[in-house]
Amino acid sequence: MTTQSETGYRSEAAALPVGTPRHHMVIFAVLLGLLLVAPSVLYPVFLMKVLCFALFASALNLLLGFGGLLSFGHAAFFGSSSYVAAYAAKAWGFNPEFAILLGVLAAAVLGLAIGALAIRRQGIYFAMVTLAFAQMVFFFALQAPFTGGEDGIQAVPRGKLFGFVDLSSDLTLYFVVVAIVFGALLLIYRIIHSPFGQVLKAIRDNEPRSISLGYKVNRYKLAVFVMSAALAGLAGATKAIVFQLASLTDVYWTMSGEVVLMTLLGGMGTVFGPLVGAAVIVTMQNYFAGFGAWVTVLQGAIFVVSVLLFREGIVGVLAKWLKKPL
Amino acid sequence: MNFKTLILASATSLLLAGTAMAQTAIKIGVLNDRSGVYADLSGEGSVIAARMAVEDFDAAGKGITVEIISADHQNKPDIASNIARQWYDQDGVDLIVDVPTSSAAFAVNEITREKNKIFMNSGAGSADLTGAQCSPNTVHWTYDTWALAHGTGSAMVAEGNSKWFFITADYAFGQALEKDTTAVVEAAGGEVLGAVRHPFPGTDFSSYLLQAQASGAQVIGLANAGGDTVNTIKQASEFGITQAGQALAGLLIFITDIHALGLETAQGLVLTESFYWDLNDETRAWSERFAAENDGKKPTMVHAGVYASVLHYLKAVEATGGKETEALMASMKSTPTSDPLFGEGMIREDGRKVHDMYLFQVKSPAESTGAWDYYNLLATIPAAEAFRPLEDGGCAFLAE
Amino acid sequence: MFELLGIPPQALFGQLLLGLINGSFYALLSLGLAVIFGLLNIINFSHGAQYMMGAFVAWMLLTYTGINYWWALLIVPLVVGATGVVIERLMISRLYHLDHLYGLLLTFGLALIIQGLFRNQYGVSGLPYSIPAELSGGTNLGFMFLPNYRGWVIVASVVVCFATWFAIEKTRLGAYLRAATENPTLVGAFGINVPRMITLTYGFGVALAALAGVLAAPIYSVNPNMGADLIIVVFAVVVIGGMGSILGAILTGFGLGIVEGLTRVFYPEGSAVVIFVIMAIVLLVKPAGLFGRTQ
Questions:
Q1: Do B266 and B285 form a contact (C-beta atoms < 8 A)?
Q2: In a domain, A120, yes or no
C-alpha cells in the first residue's frame, strides 16, 4: 500500500530547473523592496507575524514540497524553539541573537530525534507519526515546569541585539526580522537548488529508483527533516522575541495543520507559494478574528477547496499561467 | 464619604461636565471567549452588559461618546496579547474589559501596563492579577480563586466536612486552585487526604473519581474548570459518588455550567459566586433586561462584573473629564463603587474590587420553579472577609 | 498521592474495567478508520468530527423530536453515515487518482468545517444527554460500583466490533470488499459495482464513528470539541496496531484503553502521553505496527 505513495506529491507546477532563473532574483529583489517600505503602510507587528509564518511555511515546504514528506507535527519544532528562546531570553538574560540560536539548536536536535523515528514509515503513516510525536511534545510543554503551563512564558524581554541595538521599538525589530527571514528564505532557496536538493527531488519522485542509483535515501530524508525542523525553529524563536511570548498554541497540533494549510494554499513545491499562503492566512486570521468560529470554518473550507480544485495553490496556478516556475 | 461631600462631588462633576462638554470619546474593547468553553459565561453576553452600562449611564447625554468593540481571544494568551497590542497601538482602545482565562488575562495585564492603558478584568480567576502580577493599570472586578477557595473551602469545613480529596487539572491554574483551597482547609482544621492530577483537558474522570472514593474523603474538591468540571460532576453522579455520601465542591463553576449539567446531576453542589440574578429586586430587574437581549439566558457573575466595571469607569471619565490613565485609576480607586448588581463596594489600591461573596447550593429539581432557578443562598461572606487581605498579596508596585 | 504498590487488587480491577470502557471507544473508532483505510486508502481525519456529529444528532433527535436513545442508536449511524456517503460522492471520490495525502488534507479541512459549524451553533459548554432509564443506576460488582450504562458500552462495542470483523473476514460480501482492496479492476470485471461498494464502505466507517458518538453522549458531555483530541489518540492506536488487519484495530483499541487506565492509577499525569510513548517504542521495534503486514 505504502509503495503507492512513493510517487510523491509531485507538485503539478513545472519542476524547477537547475540553476537560478533570473526572474527569481527579480522577485526576491522586489520582495525585499516591498518589505522595506511596507511598515510605512501596515502595522509592523502584523507584518512580523506574517514574516514568521512565511518562514515557518517555507520550512515545511522544504520538507513537503521538495522532500515529499508531509509532516503533520511541525508545531513541535516551531513551539519548542519558541519556548527555549523565550526562556533563555527571560530567565538567563540572553541577548536575542543567542536566544534565537539556542532555540534553533533545540529544534534541530528534536528534529533529529523525531525524524530518525518518523522516516521509518512513509506516506500517511509518516504524517500520523509526526502528529503523534508533536502531541508528546505538546504534553511535555504543558507539564514541564519551565514552560509555565497554559500561561506560557510571558513578558519575554526583546533585549538588545548584539548587546547594543535596542529592539523595544517595533520598527527596529521589524528590520531585524526582515533580515532574519529574508536570509533564511535565501538559504532555503540555495538548498533547493543545490545538488542535495536535486537528489531530494529525485527521491520524492521515485524512491526505489534513487535507492537503486545508490543513494542512501534515509540519510537524505533525515537531513532534510532536520533542516526543516531547524528552520521552523528559527521561525518560532523569532516569533517568541517579537511577541514576547511563548505559548501552548505554538506547539498545539492545530498549528501544524495551519502551516500545512498555508503551504498548500500558496502552492507546495513552489519557492514563493508558502509566503503567499502565510500572508493570506495570517491576514484572514487577523481581520476576521471578530467572527469567532467562522474563522475555523473558513479555514476548513479553504482546505477543501484547495484540495479539490486548486492543488497547485495560488503561486502554482500563477506559475502555470506564466509558464515559469515560481 | 458623607452626604455633603457626595453632593459637592457630583456638583463639581456636573460643573466640569458643563464646562468641558467637549465630547470625550471612549473606546472600550470587550476581549473574551466567543467560541470556546467560556463563550457562554462571557462571550456576547459581556458585550451586551457593557452596552447596557453605557446606556444606563446615559453617556451620550453626558457628552461622552462610547464605542464598544469586541474580539475572541479563544482562551489563548498569544491571541489575547496580539489583539490587545493591536487595539492599543492601532485602534485607539482606552479600556479592555472581561478577559476570562487567567493565562490570557496575564497577557493583557502585561500589554496594558506597557502601553499605560486600563484593564478591568471580570472573567479571569487567578488571584495573582492583584498579587504577584499586579499592575497599577488593572482592576480585578468580579471574583478570584482566593475568594472562591475561601468561600467554598471554609464553609464546607465549618459544616464538618473536614476530609478532602482533590481532582485537579494538571496545569498552572488547577494547581493554584488546589493549593489555595488546601491552605484554607488546613487552616480551618481540615485535612487533605490526597489529590490526583488529570491531564488537561480530560474526557474521562471515572478513574480519578474511583480513587477519590477509595480515599474515604468527605469532600471531593474539583480544582478544574469549564468542560472538565462539568464532566467530572456528571460522571460523579453516574458512578454514584454523591449518592454514596461524598460531597462535591466545585471550586470554579458558573451558573451556565449548572445550566449545562441540569439540576438532576448538579443538585447539592456547593459553590461560591459574587452575583446571582435572583438575589434581590434590583438584580432581578437588571437580569430580566439582560436576558431579553441574550436569548433568554440569565447573566453570569462575569456579565454582571463587566456591567458594573464599565459603569464605574464611565463615572470616573465623567468625574475627571478626560481619559488620562493615572487620573482615571486614581478616581476609580478613591470613589466607592455603587451599582445595582454588587451593591456598595470599593476598589483597593492593588486593583482588587471588594464586595460581598455568596455561598450557594444547587437546588434539587423539585425545589426549582423553572429554568435558571438554580441556587439556594447558604451564606453571605461579607466583603471584608471575602478577599485576600491586601498585605498577603505581595503586590510589588504598592511598595514603590 | 497514592502509594504506588499499595493499591488493593479490587481497586486495580476497577481501574482495568474503566480502561476497558475507554478502550471500547478506541476500538470502535480505530475500527472505522481501519475499514475506511482498507478500501479507500484514506486516513479519515474527520473521523473525530463525525463521532462528535453522532453525539449531536442523538441529542438533536431527543431535544427536537423526542426520539429516544434506543432509536437514536439505529437512526444516528444511518443519518451520519448518509452524510458520509454524500461527502464521499462529492469530494473524496475525486481524489482516488491522487496521492493519499490529499485525502488526509481534505478530511482535515472537513473536520475544521464540521467542528466550526457546531461550535457556532451550540457553543462549547456541552449539552446534557441523560442516560436512558433502562440503563440508569449501577451494579455493585464487589470491587467497584459499575454504572449499568458503562457495562452496556463494553458489551455493545464488543458485539459491534465482532460483527464487523465477522462480516469482513467471514462473509461473501466481506470477501468482495477485501478483494476490491487488492485489485479493484479485477473485482469490477466480475460485475461488482466497485465505486458503489467504496461509497458504502466509507458510509459504514462513518456510521461506526457516529455509533461511538451515540454511545458516548450520555457519558461525556455533548460538545463540539469532543472528537478533536480523541482523533489523535486514535491515530496513535492505529499506528501501533498497524493498518493491516481489522482484528488488529480492535485488539489494539481495547488493549491501549487498559494500558491507559493503569497509567491513570500509577502516574495520572502521564496518562495522556502513554499511548504516544508506546507508539514510539513500537515504531522502533516493529515499524509496521503490532498487527501490520510489512511491505
A1: no
A2: yes
Residue stretches of chain A with pLDDT short of 50: 1-18
- In a mutational test of the A interface, the residue from B33, B47, B70, B82 whose CB has the highest number of chain A CBs within 10 Å is B82
Q: Compute the mean pLDDT over every residue in chain B, rounded to the nearest whole number.
A: 89
The answer to whether C269 contacts B197, with C-beta atoms less than 8 Å apart, is yes
Any A CB within 8 A of B325 CB:
no
> What pLDDT is attached to residue C293?
65
Identify the CATH assignment for B146-273+357-383 out of 3.40.50.11550, 3.40.1550.10, 3.40.50.2300, 3.40.50.720: 3.40.50.2300
Domain that holds residue A213: 28-252
Q: Which residues of A, range 99-128, sit inside 8 Å of C by Cβ?
A: 117-118, 120-121, 123-125, 127-128
- What topology does CATH give the domain B3-143+279-351? Rossmann fold (3.40.50)
> Which chain A residue shows the shortest CA-CA distance from B126?
A151
Q: Which of C58, C82, C63 is nearest to C218 (CA)?
A: C58
Q: Domains of chain C: which residue ranges?
A: 13-120+141-285
* pLDDT single digits (tens) A88-121: 999 999 999 999 999 999 999 999 999 998 888 8
What total of structural domains would you count in chain A?
A: 1
Q: What is the pLDDT of residues B281-332, one digit of tens each?
A: 999 999 999 999 999 999 999 999 999 999 999 999 999 988 999 999 999 9
Query: Has residue A12 been placed in a domain?
Result: no
Q: Please tell me if the domain spanning B3-143+279-351 has the same topology as the one spanning B146-273+357-383.
A: yes
Amino acid at B52: M
Closest CA to C106 of C45, C184, C27, C41: C45
CA C233 to chain centroid: 10
pLDDT value for A14: 42
Q: Does B373 touch chain A (CB under 8 A)?
A: no
Whether C123 contacts chain B with CB within 8 A: yes
Mean pLDDT, chain C, integer = 87
Report the top-level CATH class of C13-120+141-285.
mainly alpha
User: Is there a contact between B35 and C119 (Cβ–Cβ < 8 Å)?
Assistant: yes
In chain B, where the domains are located: 3-143+279-351, 146-273+357-383
- pLDDT at position A19, please? 52
Residue C196, C-beta contacts closer than 8 angstroms, at least 6 positions apart: none
Q: Phi and psi for B348 in degrees, rounded to 5?
A: -75, 165
- B222-273, pLDDT tens digit by residue? 998 887 888 899 888 888 888 888 889 989 999 998 988 889 888 888 899 9
On whether residue A225 sits in a domain, the answer given is: yes
The dihedral formed by the CA atoms of C235, C236, C241 and C244, expressed in degrees to the nearest 10 = 40
Asked if B161 contacts B218 with a C-beta cutoff of 8 angstroms, the reply is: yes
> Is the model's pLDDT at B20 over the cut of 50?
no
